[in-house]
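Researcher: Last one for today. Full complex below.
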Amino acid sequence: MATKAFQKIYTQLEAITKATVALRAQGISNDELAVVDGRLAQVVKTKGDLVTLQVFSGTEGIPTNAEVTFLGVPPTLKVSDELAGRFFDAYGKPLDGGPEVEGTEVQIGGPSVNPYKRRQPSQIIPTGIAGIDLNNTLVSGQKIPFFADPDQPYNNVMAQVALRADVDKIILGGMGLTNDDYLYFKHEFEAAGALDKIISFVNTTEQPPVERLLIPDMALTAAEYFAVEKNEKVLVLLTDMTLYADALSIVSNRMDQIPSKDSMPGSLYSDLAKIYEKAVQLPAGGSITIIAVTTLNDGDITHAIPDNTGYITEGQLFLRADPDSGKVIIDPFRSLSRLKQLVQGKQTRKDHSQVMNASVRLYADAQNAKTKLENGFDLSDYDLRCLDYAKAYATRILAIDVNIKIDEMLDTAWELFGTYFTKAETGIKQEFIDQYWKGN
Amino acid sequence: MKTTGKVTGIVSNLVTVEVNGPVSQNELCYITVGDTKLMAEVIKVNGKSAAVQVFESTRGLKNGNDVEFEDKMLEATLGPGLLSSSYDGLQNDLTTMTGVFLKRGEYTNPLNHEKLWDYTPIAKPGDKVVAADWLGEVKEGWLPHKIMVPFSFKGEYTVKSVVEAGQYNIEKVVAVLTDASGEDVEVKMYQKWPVKVAIKGYKEKPRPSRIMETGVRVIDTLNPIAEGGTGFIPGPFGCGKTVLQHAIAKQGDAEVIVMAACGERANEVVEIFTEFPELIDPHTGRHLMERTTIICNTSNMPVAAREASVYTAMTICEYYRAMGLKVLLLADSTSRWAQALREMSNRMEELPGADAFPVDLSAIISAFYARAGMVVLNNGQTGSVTFIGTVSPAGGNLKEPVTESTKKAARCFYALEQNRADQKRYPAVNPIDSYSKYLEYPEIREHLSEKVRPGWVEMVEKAKNIIRKGKDANDQINILGDDGVPMSYHELFWKSELVDFVILQQDAFDAIDALCPLERQSYMLELVLGICDKEFTFEDYEQCRNFFKETINLLRQMNYSEFHSEKFENYKEKLNTLLSNGN
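Model: Here's the assembly. Have a good evening.
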């Protein structure tokens, strides 16, 4: 960040916390950037002439006589087609040794789309994973996170989904990514020969946490360029949003704000919504779809971060290990795609939604049978059939290593119904039973 | 002269302003940033310093920026053309804005000032009138839209002159009134009203005495909401709050529906924008959009405007109520509104109440719910605002401030339950915890026996009892095992499953099942209770289970078939055969 000529340099800090510094200065505008002791910072509060700055890389070693200059603009990103295939840090600086990107400089975190100008999402994004396509169908323009414990292979599943999805650009926003995972993504993208449609903004665990706050806005500003200007279908991957929220709480804590639930800032909902609501189907055909990761603490979705996320996103994909089948599955009870009915039975077969509901309901019956079994009760014939069904269902439909077409998924489900149940037990509409029933 | 001021401090959208004259609480002001002006509202005054919440992003705002105060509160513009409109929380018309992105500082007119309306006078010169009395009528599509004496007029007026019937735009002076001191005032076709103040202008507010049909069985049959009543739907995410609200919006038996999308997902509003102009109102055969106004302040739109949005919506409802209409307000979600209050309270560094919400949260919520209700107008006609809000409790835990405060204010409680949603038992309204206080009103009970059938409430209570007993039986079965309990427990459990699957569950995405008129609800409940009344003798619980599964399946197929159609009667026939053969 070069300083301009004749720029006023301040050298007297009034206060320093771990994430912020405060000084007296005039003519400062809200949200503008500054450089404190060579580090990038942003105005978060002014009170009279006392200005509080959030220092992205942390304040370690900053002296009270540090040089401070104000840049007069909020954070920006230069956007152009040159972004494609590149890796950047949280400030939009190349990480891959390549040249700086030339293009139009736009402010990140820009305005929202007028809701009236949006279009209803209507295009399915098939992933081949039946736990997603059959039970929780994704739609372009949707925003949906994976909810997963840290030990689940969420980054792998996300990379798989991204590479199978039929989109023009994939934009990765990595927050607190371990170096290993960063290299994994890089390798997967390279191996798929898809690098030219991928853009990455990465903050690794080795870098300061507050820097992460810039990542989603950087990634989404790039996404808006391609979706709005180029009418492209853009898929944005954000991992891990829990670490993003943690960074928010660090800053609000240093600013002495009263925390709400789970020591998160009271504005967490709005902060997260600003990011996720960038997902959109635009009238001119472009779209932004967001798939994120929210890591959980021991499956606890009542924590403020997954809880607020769930209220904002259009569903969630819940990963868990299934002891019966020995596989990682997309949990059918706790997962949900809110937009699925926009494509199910419209872009997929008519029996889709009934098959989905019946198969999940029967899987729920299997859970009841399992409880009975654990409590040492005798199982009925129906219970036993449910248990057999559950195992087959988990292996052939729910497991994340399934990769088949949607019609095959439906046929598999009908096959399972026919094998383990009677027609009445499925409770499916008669017309579909007549058409698709396999077995007696 | 207007009061002006200068910005002296900024934290996010809370701005402090040094003022040079009088300001009032909730007064509007405009802050100049470059060539745009940002609207803001005074929320606290301390000496010469006023704290204002800005309804837009404050990026680029500087200390020293000019502020101009408007000497009025945030107002809604009320007149013909509100119906079918789509507004943001401040009543800017979203459809006339330019560009795909919202532009900061772009404010659009809520009403079209050029459009001509067919106007017919009601009042005659010499008539004595007070605020909210009807002066004339405009055909707003199908709706007889009354032009009223502005609500802000105090005391009695004499009509001096009225225009003759004809086509006018809303700027036309349609009447001249003379006040007690002999001064003449002109009345146009529109008026303005501060949204945070309730519109009065009615004679009395009696207890609600009729129910409002929604076509949703768990509501109409189990816990009906009254016309002019209040209800709320709390539930964790993914339990179907929004689907349920949309179902009510599509089928609710109201003349005007205002939907306030308050801090929720934009795509949900897009769904309304897309579907409502196409869908048909089952009560009138007209397009749904013709009776709907949308107030849309989605979660990524400015937080302060989110708080305003519910008030804007309520004001529009009260305006139509004053025309003697049946109005339904749906707000999704009131928790987002409460969170907006929390964010501001937090930035003002107020001492927080529970979960960091402001301490007066409960009072704010109940004052808002109190604006709903049935009223008797000055001319003896009635109008009503029925209000159903959703609540999004943090972590799905109903022991949190917004749910608790709302429970004190609302008369109907529709608790959505995670467990039922997990089992795809939609709508996931818990039949035991939910309640409607209106079922206790003698006038409502009487109304129901006339409207539905004699003894209806007793039937409903019986159904609830079956569910309760079934739950107890199921608990026992789970503790003691299938073989450890008498057969009667299995029977009790399966009878409750029958009520659950056939009456409680309803497929909001099935064209036929989605809308269930009261007549049909009554028919099905009678049928189900008839089966529950039977004593069966099953040999074992497998037989019991199979019998009920078969019964449930047939009744569900009936739910999916056109009422009294051949298909419907066929399933009924099969059901009768099953019932007479089985045991």
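Chain A has three domains: 2-70, 76-342, 352-436. Chain A is about 30% helix and 20% strand.
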